[in-house]
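Title: Comparing notes on inverse folding

I've been comparing how different people in this forum approach sequence design from structure. To keep things fair, I'm posting one structure and asking everyone to reply with a full sequence. Here's the target:
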């Protein structure tokens, strides 16, 4: 019996990684074996699997299972994005945007936004509203941000509330109409891509999503001390200043070198951090802090 068990163990270990699937890597990742997960995903990614390439990119971005290497992360994310992987396009775009390569970032973020990815919709929408590196278009901006907010992204909801206070009603109405049109086109594209069933389809089996759960984001790159900015991010409002200070202390690692601002507002104290040169920079920072409620505000 011992000999048989040993033989089975050797046989199982000898199965090549290429014979396994992306889900096998996810199972390994969730069990704490990040290196094993990467070993499973790598040959799949090299054979063209976009999900596997995305997961390897995330692994390099997080430094789990492999050394932290943003250049490698960018390379693998781009492989996945070129195959139409929208999460990869959005993550790649955000990574490039935060590293100052906005021209290339916008290309990938546009791809993801056109596919309805909420983070990309928010960032492109904010850039469109501000005319930040792109021609200003408030109506399309409102359409993009409202589509992002409709998917539940907290930062988008906060940004949309700001836009509601600033934009004329007619522009907002046009934006909502455009958002519905864009969503309808996207739904039509998805439906058209599905083959018609000749018989009543069976209920699909439940499966684990082929994506690595994103861990804590790396710290936000601070604005150089010599720089000034007209924008900040707001992280909450508290009845006591000590509560605001406590939250900032807990988030200090992710906030990097950002400066805290404690703004009295009636019976509450608002916690803000910054500065940021543009609203797009502030919104990008908020996107990296999810699920922490956060939105961009003008420094006053």
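Reply #1:
Here's my take.
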């Amino acid at each position: 019996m011992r000999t048989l068990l040993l033989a089975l163990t050797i046989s199982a270990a000898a199965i090549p990684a290429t014979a396994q699937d992306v889900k096998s890597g996810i199972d390994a990742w969730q069990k704490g074996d990040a290196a094993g997960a990467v070993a499973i995903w790598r040959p799949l990614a090299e054979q063209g699997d976009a999900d596997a390439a995305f997961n390897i990119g995330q692994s390099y971005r997080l430094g789990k299972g492999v050394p932290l290497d943003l250049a490698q992360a960018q390379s693998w994310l781009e492989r996945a994005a070129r195959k139409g992987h929208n999460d990869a396009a959005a993550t790649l775009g955000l990574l490039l945007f935060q590293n100052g390569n906005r021209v290339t970032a916008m290309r990938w973020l546009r791809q993801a936004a056109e596919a309805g990815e909420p983070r990309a919709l928010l960032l492109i929408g904010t850039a469109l509203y501000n005319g930040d590196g792109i021609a200003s278009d408030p109506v399309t901006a409102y359409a993009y941000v409202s589509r992002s907010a409709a998917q539940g992204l907290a930062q988008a909801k906060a940004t949309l509330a700001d836009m509601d206070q600033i934009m004329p009603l007619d522009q907002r109405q046009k934006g909502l109409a455009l958002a519905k049109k864009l969503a309808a086109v996207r739904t039509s594209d998805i439906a058209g891509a599905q083959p018609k069933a000749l018989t009543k389809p069976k209920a699909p089996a439940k499966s684990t999503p082929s994506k690595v759960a994103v861990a804590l984001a790396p710290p936000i790159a601070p604005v150089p001390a010599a720089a000034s900015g007209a924008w900040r991010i707001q992280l909450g409002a508290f009845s006591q200043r000590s509560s605001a200070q406590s939250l900032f202390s807990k988030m200090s690692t992710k906030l990097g070198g950002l400066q805290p601002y404690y703004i009295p507002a009636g019976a509450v104290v608002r916690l803000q951090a910054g500065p940021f040169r543009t609203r797009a920079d502030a919104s990008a920072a908020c996107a990296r802090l999810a699920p922490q409620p956060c939105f961009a505000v003008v420094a006053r």
